[in-house]
Amino acid sequence: MKLISLLFLAVLVPMPALAQPWKPAHGARLEFDVLRDGGKFGTHVLKFSREGETLTVDTDVELKVALGPLTLFEYVHDVTEKYIGDRLVWVGSRTQNEGKRKTLAAQPVEGGLKVNAEAFNGVLKGIVIPSTHWNEDEMKQPKMFSTETGEMMPIKVTERGTEKVKVGGATIDARRYDVDSAIDASFWYDAQGRWVKTAFETQGSKIEYVLRRLPA
Q1: Which residues 6+ apart lie within 8 Å of 31 measured at CB?
Q2: What span, in angstroms and rounded, lies between the C-alpha atoms of 144 and 121?
Q3: Cβ neighbours around 6 below 10 Å, total
Q4: pLDDT tens digit string along 14-58?
Q5: DSSP code of 103?
Q6: Residue ranges of domains in the chain
Q7: How many angstroms separate the CA atoms of 31 and 29, rounded?
Q8: Which of 81, 182, 184, 206 would you call most buried, defined as having the most Cβ atoms within 10 angstroms of its Cβ?
Q9: How many CB atoms lie within 10 A of CB 123?
Q10: Hey, which CATH number is domain 2-211, 1.10.1670, 2.40.360, 2.40.50, 2.30.29?
């Protein structure tokens, strides 16, 4: 019944097509180790599954700072996206940030994407790309859809050209984008459009996403 409902939404109120330069295969994963000032901070993992024309993307983020048995900081963010073809038909998320919980749900309605979230309840129009970063076309938009708050966050993106990036035991070429937003960050994507690295600074700490291996 759920798949039928998704198909109905996609036919009745299609969202604008998203190019999605990388077409992840069924079972593909992007597994990042997240480092804080060079030390272990957590993980950020994306899992891709396909059933017919439907692509499901599950994102699991777990970040934690502890001092012995004492937890100083904890952040958990889970997101599910569903696409039929290249068209977004569902986004849902749950977030726990230092004990505070948030939820988000969004799906197509006539005229756009209906969002029910902490910071925004309403309909978003035009192209909406969730801030899960696996779709390189996110770097080509003037705003980024926050999967935590539901806001459309203004961003200014500058492409910096190709740089060398280490993935697993290999060094690859990747395009760098510098994003000016609430938190300034840099993102790297390889020639196939796969997200391979992120780096930014926050609260005086340097955060780096290190990809364990390239997916097939």
Answers
A1: 43, 45, 46, 211, 212, 213
A2: 16
A3: 18
A4: 455 567 899 999 999 999 999 999 999 999 999 999 999 999 999
A5: E
A6: 2-211
A7: 6
A8: 81
A9: 14
A10: 2.40.360
